[in-house]
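Structure representation.

___
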Amino acid sequence: MQVKTKAIVISTLKFQEKSLLVTCYTASDGIKKYMVHNVFSSKKSNQKIAYFQPLTILEVEAFHKNKNTLEYFKEIRLAHPFHSIPNSILKSTIAIFLSEILYHSIKEEEQNINLFAFLETALLWLDTHEINANFHIIFMLELTKFFGFYPDENTINFPFFDKREGYFVPYQTTDALNEAESSLFKKIIGLKWDATSNNLTSNERYSLLKILLDYYAQHLEGFKKPKSLEVLKEVFS
């Protein structure tokens, strides 16, 4: 079946000498994997490679067989050319980190219009605004709304956060953060990435990242810690 859809590049893997295996999150069908031939062999190879940078938003025509096999692009262009993300070390590092988060989080080959809209809106905001050092943390927390384990804000007055249950409790359980960690975690609940205040130190930010990664691993089978985590730590230290 031939489809026209927007697609967000999640990951790429070089195949043999000239081709790429590209994983995208599409507006039409969720996760899709594509084979792109001769990316490194044509005179316009630099232009082609630019299409497949982490979290690039594409407009594509593609053939979807929907049989758990590799798909193929017929036409491809940039839906929203990024202006600042490719030229900012901070923003490009965030994009690499979040692309890994999405790669290990989203597995469904099915349409989710609300999730795609969230991702597109977040990426366009990142590209068009001054860098917010908390962006990736807020992004990860907001993303849990689409996976079904966003923390229960109705219990936020309790002192301990139970990662397995996804809510705060009055006593420390086996799966709960300690009181200091729980207090830190509360700082980002309900926080928006357009907030101008930066109320987190670099150490607090890194602690929150580790908490969120553990939280993801608790709720998403097969979730892996991003390889770019240490690079992100260095960039924001």
Observations:
- The radius of gyration is 19 Å.
- The chain has seven helices and seven strands.
- The CA atoms of residues 169 and 204 lie 22 Å apart.
- The longest helix spans residues 202-219.
